[in-house]
Queue: 4 jobs
Job 1
Amino acid sequence: MRGTVRWNGVMGFEGQSESGHRFLMDLPKEHGGEDKGMRPMEALLLATGGCSSVDVVMILKKGRHAVSGCEVQLEADRAPADPKVFTRLHFHFVVRGKGLKPEVVERAIALSHEKYCSASAMLGKTAAISHDFEIVEE
């Protein structure tokens, strides 16, 4: 896997993945940025949520469960001193579908965090990771 990050001359950066997709990162104005993109640590947090959500949906679909939506709300705390690593991550999943059983959703989330999600496995080295979920019947 490869990627490139280019500085825009102020305090903004554009990241481009090997697959050609791009996103902007920037700092707030009070730190010299133009506030035109998300902060790099915000991107990392969202990427972790994306990684885990992909796993949850794939596990549920593979088990032939009628999942129709998945959202994860994320909360994180960071260390007060540099490097300001994540020290706590909480994932609140909202899973939509028909006839989804709580134990099945719980198992899919646990498998993501314990076995499949590379991002949460890495961040779990410095952060306590927790999760909960709700199921919305459709």
Job 2
Amino acid sequence: MTDLKLDFISKYRTPFMGLAIFWIFFYHTGIELPVLRELFSLGWIGVDIFFFISGFGLCASLTKDNSVKGFFKRRFKRIIPTWWIVLAVMAIFGFCLELRNFPSSPIDFFYWFTGIGWWTANCNFEWYIPTLLLFYLFSPLLARMSVKSLCVIALVSATVAILLGGGILRLFDHIYMSYSRIPVFISGFAAYKFQRSKTCVSSKLWIPVCFFGLIWFGAGMFVKTYNVTFGLTIARVAIPMFIIPMLALIAIIFSKISFINSLMSFLGLISLEVYLLHINHEFSHSVETMYLSVVDNSLIKLTWFAIVVTTAWMLHNLMQKTSQLFGND
């Protein structure tokens, strides 16, 4: 076993995002095939990869340009226009198809387009973007912290998440998917600082930490069979302990198989759009039901994936051209 250099995270950042969205997509749709069924049942880890890579990328951005105003402007341009376009289209579909959990009043639209609905348990589209936007607010502060401080905060946030996930203050149960991701997001900042300082992660450190993390993760999955919220919270706060070795192994695959690297790089570029276009399960199920009569059931998930990826690519290009039209300053 060797020490870990973290340069591979920057090199394969986009393919990692592509793998994450691929894993997430088929976690949501399901694959009824041996081995693959079990593999994609853990697809929610793809979200943790997203948060880790986001933390890493945000720290890099803020380190290279510490302008807080510029940081928020760049984040706004990348996330909000695409998010609002998808929200608007989905709201129209929801109205036309008379779907239940879609906006039908002015206050619903407020909750819908601001993401506040996630935090208040009112009308909301999804949870990832509202969570990421909240994490953005603290990113300039996190980027200024030392690795030691980041590790302490990650440990404290993991402890608090476990306490909340265990049933203390049940008021926060509905947002457990957000607070259980704080440690992995912060660990992305720490990882970038390690890479920037050219510091290797010693095998004497990462091997026992990874081993303990996997045991902790397994314990969480066991608890999940009795208490979903508590079990998943335990499992998620364990992911920062083994995510870097896990990504290192995946990076080896990317380096050896160019086709997989290229495919995941493509998916990584449109990962935001793919996520938004498929994440509302009520919408996805309604669309799938409409063409189920003309598509063989065994192919419907692959067909839906192809439709979502194609639409995501078109939307991504549209937003790129729109951004160029209005300037990139």
Job 3
Amino acid sequence: MSTAVRISSLTNVAQITEIARLAREIWDEYYVPIIGRPQVEYMLAKFQTTEAIRAQIDSGFEYFLLQDRQPIGYASIRHDAPEARIFISKLYVLAAHRNSGVGRQCLQHFEHIAHERGATVLWLTVNKGNPSLRAYERLGFRIAEAIVTDIGGGFVMDDYRMEKALG
């Protein structure tokens, strides 16, 4: 089943608030089994509040709201022009819309942005225990390295950095 999703750049504070709400719903459902409630709470408070998202936008991240008839997820990228790379910082979809082609459409959207901006690589990080790792591999990403990042509060992100070279 494939759903046509609308991918919109953020244009107002209400959309940022909606993304913070979506983050809470998605992270509670998806990430608690992978990294545990304490780390989810810490990461939501540090990275996914309205204020944190505004700060990320101010520092060069671009956020996108994913919508069907209503908001179904969100994503974020940062373009590193000198390195000709785009970092996919976030790509989160509500449970009812996973495995419907939304993630693929979003990644294709980012590939289009990369081509427009002259970027030759898309990259992201994914938790080593995240089932979506296999989906990224099917979509052409490869594991470039294993990384452990201290995010404070006694927590680390134990991830793979994955990348996809664009032709």
Job 4
Amino acid sequence: MTYLYLGIAILSEVVATTFLKLSDGFSKPLPSLVTVAGYAVAFYFLSLTLRSLPTGVVYAVWSGVGVVLIATIAWVFQSQKLDTAALCGHGPDRLRGRCDQSVFQRFVAVNGLC
């Protein structure tokens, strides 16, 4: 049940963040309402998850999966261009013309989550 709660938290946060862009600085009522409700649901289910899983693990999975989903939604539905940093999972200071494993990919691999 804990991972179901984490999944709900991730999806709620992704929906809230997507609608945050659509709210246009909270000037549009419906997207603003979805944003606030989505974050409330996300943090509620995140708090339930934290009852039984370590904070570091929960936050790594929540933020990592959320970033991937939000970047994908922004790319597909909002015509956002993905630069090399977004595609490789790290900032310009680590770019050397190739994509190394991101911190999240290493975390997943080390902990056998795939």
